[in-house]
Amino acid sequence: MGLNFKEKLGRIFAHLIYLKNKKWIKNPIRYQAKTFDYLVRKGSNTSFGRDHFFNNIKTYDDFKDNVPIKDYEDIKPYIDKIFSGQINVLWPGKPIYFAKTSGTTSGLKYIPITKESMRTHIISARDSLLNYIHETGNSSFINGKHIFLQGSPILEEKNGIHIGRLSGIAAHYVPNYLQKNRMPTWKTNCIEDWEKKVDMIIDETLSQNMTVISGIPSWVQMYFEKIISKRKKRISEIFENFSLFVHGGVNYDPYKTLFKKLIGKQIDSLEVFPASEGFFAYQDKQKETGLLLLVNNGIFYEFIEARDFGVNNDRIPLSQVKKGIEYVMIISTSAGLWAYNLGDTIKFVCLSPYRVIVTGRIKHFISAFGEHVIGKEVETAIKIASGKTFCVIREFTVAPQINPSSGLPYHEWFIDFDKRPDNISKFSLHLDKEMRNQNLYYDDLISGKILKKLVVTEVVKDGFKKYMKEIGKLGGQNKVPRLSNDRIIVEKLISKRK
Predict the structure, then answer these.
(1) Tens digit of pLDDT for each residue in 321-336?
(2) Comparing C-alpha atoms, which of 147, 149, 150 is closest to residue 167?
(3) Selection from 239, 267, 289, 177 nearest residue 281 by Cα
(4) Disulfide-capable partner of 421 in 322, 341, 383, 391 (CB 3.0 to 4.6 Å)?
């Protein structure tokens, strides 16, 4: 069957956007320089710009000298000024939104979103799908229904600025031509209770021609499992034309085996890297590793080697990065964030074009014994170990046990298995072996008898979901940290052991 008008139009538009984006993809450093000049110029007449002598900034080195790295605590006084009604604080005028997000040290954070930065969020989300159409030729999903499991679009307002979760804010920007395809209904999207919301979404979508499903994997997993429980069929049998899963927020690798089982067949997936602070990258090639870094997006990027972070915070621009080194990403944006520590760690897997993988969070690591284990390492280890022992993981987190009742300290892995390994001891040995392969410092600690081999502690089915519900973070864009340097999270999971 030939393409209908909608599909033909989609392919033409996708090709035009591809040609347009090729310009900055092929000239990333030039476009980063243009972005830098634009941002400094716009920031010169703001409170932040005056405090940091933006009028004297002529070069990148001037910028580094005048603007030290900022965490949220550093910009909070400026956020408070905006809340009090002041204008031209971090960016000309005032933000149109504050995106609410959880902070590791500050509690709730309010990230500004301006008219200029909101536009980049929307364009980047659009371009990720159009790039997929151009690359694969798959445009049939345009004809079906699309769902993004997201937070409530109901927003608060303070001094003319609307406040809500980024996903809820984005719900206000669905293009008119997609409104008829959009699921769930506005009324259902406004339900705050996540479990009730998922139940209503299922009621609304079960009879629909769902072709695109998007969201954080753990919450899409819940949606799928409830559907399967209700219909006793795989997702591909229920949504026969479901052909694209769009995901972000966490590494998808640990979920791949489970999702293939839930869906019942292999389908394309599209990874994106958005955050309240900006839309940074999307997967531009189905068969290539990494996400295309968006260098013409109102964001100027700087990088600090993760191993030096907090010791020698030597920032470098995009032109000086190297493949295979883990970096902390520092951003300056058209939302008025300046030399801002995003907290995410990345590695470049390609430099032409610039493609990255997200390796974890700089504040989410284990280094209780100097090992500095990061998210990417634990995710890789568990993927390999589960593959070798034919088990399926639903969710997991890792924490150090510094003071065991007897014996040496160790890393404790709390795991909710969808399918248990036949031999948990064998699984644990594989997991420990892969961790030693991933992290040489961890290997040294085991070899030197500073640590004993890791310990696996099973969590009851849905134990993580219950934990997230207890702390008020079930659903939306919330996710369980893969690891932490203390036992605050896992102590609450101990009661959920099998």
Answers:
(1) 999 999 999 999 999 9
(2) 150
(3) 289
(4) 391
The residue whose two tokens read 């599909």 is 7
Query: What number of CA atoms fall less than 13 Å from residue 112's CA on the CB side?
Result: 30
Q: How far apart are CA 292 and CA 347, in angstroms?
A: 12
Helix axes 5-26, 28-43, angle to 10 degrees: 80
Give the separation between CA 182 and CA 477, rounded to whole angstroms: 19
Residues of the chain with pLDDT > 70: what percent? 95
- Tokens found for residue 461: 């089915």
Does 143 reside within a domain? no
> Which residue range(s) make up the domain with 383?
365-496
User: What element of type H or E holds 169?
Assistant: helix 166-170
Has residue 125 been placed in a domain? no
Structural domains counted in the chain: 1
In the block, residue with structure tokens 């890789």: 380
Q: What CATH number does residue 467 fall under?
A: 3.30.300
Question: Is position 372 within any domain?
Answer: yes
DSSP assignment of 218-229 equals: HHHHHHHHHHHH
At which residue do the structure tokens 């997929």 appear? 132
Tokens coding 302: 């700087």
Place of tokens 């364009």: 123
| Inter-helix orientation angle 424-438/375-389, to 10° | 140
Residue ranges in 450-494 assigned as alpha helix (H): 463-470, 488-493
Backbone angles phi, psi at 144, to 5 degrees: -100, -165
36 occurs within a structural domain: no
Band (pLDDT 50/70/90 cuts) for residue 106 is: very low
Residues 427/429/430/436 CA torsion (nearest 10 deg) = 140
Based on the number of CB atoms within 10 Å of its own CB, is 285 exposed (0-12), middle (13-18) or buried (19 or more)?
middle
d(CA 167, CA 314): 34
pTM, to two decimals? 0.79
